[in-house]
Specification:
The complex is a heterodimer of chains A (386) and B (347). With 386 residues, chain A is mainly α. Chain A is built from 18 helices and two strands. Chain B is an all-alpha fold. Classes of the chains: A mainly alpha (386), B mainly alpha (347).
Chain lengths: 386, 347
C-alpha cells in the first residue's frame, strides 16, 4: 500500500475524532442556547478568547473520555517493521485492524497517534483531581491562617514558604526515588494529605447544619462512610471491599504534585481571606453569633470564589506541566506509560532525525495548557465585568 | 529598615537550615546509606557487613548529630579500629593529629562526589559558572523582550495590539521548556525539516559559545519566562495609565510617546522588578530541563546526575546552592521593592 499524503492523514485523524466532535458540538449548542441561565459559565460564551480556551479543554476532555474508541492501535503494542516510520505509513499486511500508523511509529515501533490519545486519559485522570486536592488542602489551612492570624498564621506561612523555596525538580527527585519509596514516606504523606478533603467536607457540612441535628447527623455519616472508604482504598490500599485501589507509582506522582501545589493555593487563599475578613458581611455574621468555621466556609469562601475558579483553571495547566516534567525525567510513571511527558522523554533521543514521536505529545500538551490558560483569561475577564 | 532587614535575614537563615536539614534527612535515609555502603565497599556485602561498614564510617549516629557535622558546628566523628588506627570525617590520610576538629560546609569542606570522583565544591562552582553564562544570555534576551511586550500591550488597554500581544504571552507561558525545546529542535535543528540553522545540542558551548550552539537553549528558557513577566508588566502598565497624573499630563498636551516613556514607564517598572527577581528560582527549573535536553553540563545537569546516581554529598551541595539562590533572590526582591517604591513604609 502507498503511504498516506498529509491531506489524507489529516482527514483520517479528523474522522477518528468523530465522537469528540459530536460531544463538543452538543455541549456548545446547549451552552450557547441557555447561556443566560448558566451564570458565570454562560457568560464565558460572550468572550471569544474564553470560548477558544473552553473548546481546546473540551476537546481533550472528550478525547480522554472516548480514548478507547479513538485509538487505532494498542498504545503499548509493537509492530515489527514500523520502527521510527514516518506519519501515514501503512501497517504490514494482515497484522492489524487499522491499516495505517497515522502519526508514524516511535523508536519501539508503537503507534504515536494512539499513544498520544491514551496519554490524554492519564493526564486528565491525574491533573484535575490533584489540583482539586491541592485546593482542599490549601483552603483548609489558608482560611484559618487568615481568619485567626497570629502564631498559627506565622507557623503555616513559614511552612508554606519552606516548601515553595524548594526547587521543584529536587523535591520530585527526593520524593520519587526508589529508596525514599522504600521507606514509605510518600505513603505517609498520602495518608496526611488525603485526610484534608474529608476534614474539609466534614467541617463544611457541620458548620452549615449545626442547628439541624437530624440533617447534620445524616450528612456527616454519609460523608464519613464514603470518605473513609475511599481514603482507605486510595491512601493505604486497604479497601475492605477491594474495589478501590491505586497503583503505587501513580499514587506517588499524585502525592508529589499535590504537595508542590498546595502551598501556592494556601498563599492565595490566605491573601483573599485577609482581604475579605474585613468586610461588613463578615462582621454581621460574627455579630449574629455564627461560629468561626461557618464564617470562614460559608461567608468568606463563597466570596473568594471568582479568583479561586480562575486560579483553578491555571493550576490544572500548571499541574499538567508538572506531570510532564516528572515524565520528562522518567520519574514516577512506568517507562512504557503513554503519558505525554514520558513520551516526549522517549522521543527526544532521536529528535534531530525523527522528530515526529516527540512532537505529537509536545503539541498535545501545549494545546491543553494553552486552552486552560485562555479559559482562565476569559473567566477572569467575564467575572470582572460585573 | 535595619530591623526589617535583620528580621528578613533571620527568617532566611532559619529557612535555609530547615531546608538543608530536610534534604539531609531525605538523602541519608537508611536505604540510601545501605546503597552507599554497597557502592563504596562491596556489592555482595551481607547485612552485618553493611552495618559494620556504616559504623566504621560514622553513619551509625543520630541524624541530628550527623547534620551538625556536615554543617560544621559539631566536631567530626572519629573511629579507632582494633589496631589503634584513627580514621575520621576530617582526617584525609594518616596524620590524625593535625586534622581539624570540625569540617563541614561552614569550613568549606563540602565532601566528595562518589560519581565524579572530585571535590563537591569544585564541581559545584565549575558547573555554576557554566550555568551563569547560560543565565546571563537568558536575562539579556528575556528581560528587554518581556518589558517591551508588556509595555506595548499595557499602554493602550483593550486595543487589538494589546489582545494579540497578550495572547502571545499566554501562549509562551503555556509552553513548558521541554515542549518548546522539542519544537525548536524539530524545526531548526532536525534533518526532517531541513532548516538546520542551529545545533540540537549545546555540549560544545561549554568551551566555546557560538550563535549556532547556544541560541536554542537560551531561547527555550527565555520564552517560558518571558510571558509571565510580560503579563505582570502589562498589568502594572495598565494600572499606571489610569492614574491621575497621567490624565493631567494628557490634558496638558504632552505627546503620547512622552507620556509612556517619561511619565508612566518608571512607575510601571516597579512591580516587574519583583517578578523578575522571583523568576530566577523558577528559571532554575527551566535550567535543569534545558541542560538535560541540550546536554549542556551545567548546574542543572549536575543536579540531575547527583539525584539520579544517589551521589549524596554532591546532591546536598547542589541543594544548598539552589536553596541559597532561591532565598537570596527573595530577599533582594523584597528589599528592592521597598527601595524602588518610596510609598511603602515598613514599620
Amino acid at each position: 500500500m502507498e503511504p498516506l499524503s498529509w491531506g489524507s492523514i489529516i482527514a483520517q485523524i479528523f474522522a477518528q475524532f468523530t465522537p469528540v466532535w459530536i460531544g463538543m458540538v452538543t455541549v456548545f449548542v446547549l451552552s450557547i442556547r441557555f447561556k443566560r441561565r448558566l451564570g458565570l459559565y454562560g457568560k464565558l460564551f460572550d468572550s471569544t478568547v474564553g470560548m477558544i480556551g473552553f473548546a481546546l479543554v473540551l476537546f481533550w476532555v472528550f478525547t480522554a473520555l472516548f480514548a478507547g474508541s479513538i485509538i487505532t492501535h494498542d498504545p503499548l503494542g509493537q509492530l515489527s517493521g514500523m520502527k521510527n516510520k514516518l506519519p501515514g505509513t501503512p501497517v504490514p499486511d494482515g497484522v492489524d485492524v487499522y491499516a495505517y500508523y497515522l502519526l508514524g511509529g516511535d523508536n519501539l515501533a508503537r503507534d504515536v497517534f494512539s499513544r498520544m490519545v491514551s496519554g490524554s486519559t492519564i493526564v486528565m485522570q491525574i491533573a484535575p483531581l490533584a489540583t482539586l486536592f491541592a485546593f482542599m488542602v490549601g483552603i483548609t489551612l489558608g482560611l484559618p491562617a487568615a481568619y485567626y492570624g497570629g502564631k498559627l498564621d506565622m507557623f503555616l506561612s513559614f511552612l508554606a514558604n519552606l516548601i515553595l523555596a524548594f526547587p521543584v525538580i529536587l523535591l520530585f527527585y527526593l520524593l520519587v526515588t526508589p529508596e525514599i519509596v522504600k521507606t514509605g514516606l510518600p505513603k505517609y504523606m498520602a495518608g496526611v494529605l488525603f485526610l484534608f478533603p474529608i476534614v474539609f467536607m466534614v467541617v463544611l457540612l457541620n458548620a452549615r447544619f449545626f442547628t439541624q441535628p437530624a440533617k447534620r447527623a445524616a450528612y456527616l455519616t454519609a460523608t464519613l462512610v464514603v470518605g473513609l472508604w475511599i481514603y482507605l482504598g486510595v491512601a493505604w490500599n486497604t479497601d475492605p471491599l477491594g474495589i478501590i485501589s491505586v497503583p503505587p507509582n501513580i499514587l506517588i506522582v499524585f502525592v508529589s504534585v499535590v504537595f508542590v501545589n498546595a502551598p501556592t493555593v494556601f498563599r492565595i487563599v490566605r491573601g483573599l481571606g485577609l482581604d475579605i475578613k474585613t468586610r461588613d458581611y463578615v462582621a454581621a455574621a460574627q455579630t449574629r453569633g455564627e461560629g468561626p468555621w461557618y464564617t470562614m466556609l460559608w461567608e468568606i469562601l463563597p466570596n473568594a470564589r471568582g479568583p479561586l475558579i480562575v486560579d483553578f483553571c491555571l493550576r490544572i495547566g500548571y499541574t499538567t506541566i508538572l506531570l510532564g516534567t516528572l515524565g520528562f525525567f522518567g520519574l514516577g510513571l512506568a517507562p512504557e506509560s503513554p503519558d505525554w511527558g514520558t513520551t516526549i522523554n522517549d522521543g527526544r533521543k532521536l529528535l534531530s532525525i525523527y522528530p515526529h514521536p516527540a512532537l505529537a505529545p509536545a503539541l498535545a500538551l501545549m494545546s491543553l495548557v494553552l486552552g486552560l490558560n485562555l479559559l482562565a483569561d476569559g473567566l477572569r475577564e467575564e467575572s470582572l465585568k460585573d | 529598615m535595619a530591623i526589617f532587614l535583620l528580621r528578613r535575614i533571620g527568617v532566611m537563615l532559619l529557612t535555609a537550615i530547615a531546608l538543608t536539614f530536610i534534604v539531609f534527612v531525605l538523602t541519608n535515609l537508611q536505604p540510601n546509606l545501605e546503597k552507599v555502603a554497597k557502592f563504596q565497599g562491596n556489592v555482595r556485602m551481607t547485612d552485618e557487613e553493611v552495618t559494620s561498614w556504616l559504623g566504621k564510617n560514622g553513619y551509625d549516629r543520630s541524624m541530628v548529630a550527623r547534620y551538625g557535622e556536615w554543617l560544621g558546628v559539631v566536631p567530626g566523628w572519629t573511629y579507632t579500629d582494633d589496631a589503634g588506627k584513627v580514621t575520621g570525617r576530617c582526617i584525609d590520610d594518616d596524620n590524625a593529629d593535625q586534622a581539624q576538629t570540625r569540617c563541614g560546609v561552614l569550613q568549606g569542606e563540602w565532601g566528595h562526589s562518589i560519581v565524579f570522583k572530585e571535590d563537591v565544591r569544585d564541581i559545584v562552582f565549575k558547573r555554576l559558572g557554566l550555568t551563569a553564562k547560560l543565565m546571563f544570555w537568558v536575562m539579556i534576551l528575556m528581560v528587554p523582550m518581556a518589558l517591551v511586550l508588556g509595555v506595548l500591550a499595557g499602554m493602550r488597554e483593550g486595543t487589538r495590539l494589546d489582545r494579540s500581544l497578550s495572547t502571545i504571552s499566554i501562549a509562551t507561558t503555556a509552553t513548558p521548556e521541554y515542549v518548546s525545546g522539542v519544537i525548536l529542535i524539530a524545526v531548526f535543528a532536525s534533518s526532517a525539516v531541513g532548516l538546520k540553522w542551529f545545533k540540537g545540542t549545546a555540549t560544545s558551548a561549554m568551551d566555546d559559545i557560538t550563535f549556532a550552539n547556544f541560541t536554542l537553549p537560551v531561547v527555550t528558557i527565555a520564552l517560558y519566562g518571558m510571558g509571565y513577566i510580560a503579563r505582570m508588566t502589562r498589568a502594572s502598565m495598565t494600572e499606571v495609565m489610569t492614574t491621575q497624573y497621567i490624565r493631567t499630563a494628557r490634558l496638558k498636551g504632552v505627546s503620547f510617546t512622552n507620556i509612556v516613556l517619561k511619565h508612566a514607564l518608571r512607575n510601571a517598572l516597579i512591580a516587574p522588578f519583583t517578578v523578575i527577581m522571583l523568576q530566577i528560582p523558577w528559571l532554575l527549573n527551566g535550567v535543569v530541563i534545558v541542560e538535560t535536553l541540550f546536554n549542556y553540563k551545567g548546574f542543572g545537569w549536575t543536579l540531575v546526575q547527583a539525584a539520579g546516581n544517589n551521589d549524596v554529598e554532591l546532591l546536598l551541595g547542589c541543594s544548598v546552592v539552589a536553596v541559597i539562590v532561591v532565598l537570596v533572590t527573595q530577599l533582594i526582591s523584597d528589599v528592592g521593592y521597598v527601595f524602588l517604591n518610596p510609598r511603602i513604609r515598613i514599620s
